[in-house]
Amino acid sequence: MKKYAVIVAGGSGSRMHSNLPKQFLLLNGKPVLFYTLDTFLKSYKDLQIILVLPEDHIAAGQEIIDAFFNYDRIRITAGGRTRFHSVQNGLQLITEESIIFVHDGVRCLLTTDLIHRCYKAAIEFGSAIPVIDSKDSVRIVLEDGNEPLERSKIKLVQTPQTFHSKILLPAYKIDYKDKYTDEATVAEAFGLKVHLIEGEEGNIKITRPVDLTVAEGMIIG
Asked: What's the whole-model pTM score?
């Protein structure tokens, strides 16, 4: 089965207090995006990457590829107005039956094991959404106050969210709505159920300076 990873790296550096988008910040001397690309390329020799970047930063992404990777396995396309539109742009480059991973470019500490487990689950169930348990108490805010939720039934969602192309490609032809915050919500809006698998505690998303510090420690460790 063909394999594609649509890696969405369209974030800004606002929460990092940086003018440079977080995917290009250095982590132990290499850009955050390097680690994400490297792990996917190592996971399967026949996997192709579609890297979705802000149009103004495509040249910076090209520099990373030229410095570290074989460009034959990576294509770059421009992102869109929202994550939904960025993923949609990436999916337009896929025309053949395949398993498609959609991953946040700044989740740079995922492992090849997680990628393999997502692939196997997507082959069997059509989809694979990695999740982890919530360690904290959780409350929902209502119009007239707030109330606790049962923590054991709450899951924190990660990427790569993985689908058979027969599911994901037609799902992304629907009209955009604000509630589509990830691929799972798009697939569900298309009328499909998604399959959850166990994610990884270390598969953190780099969004704030403290995350970069934690990631540095994890790579050294």
From this structure: 0.94
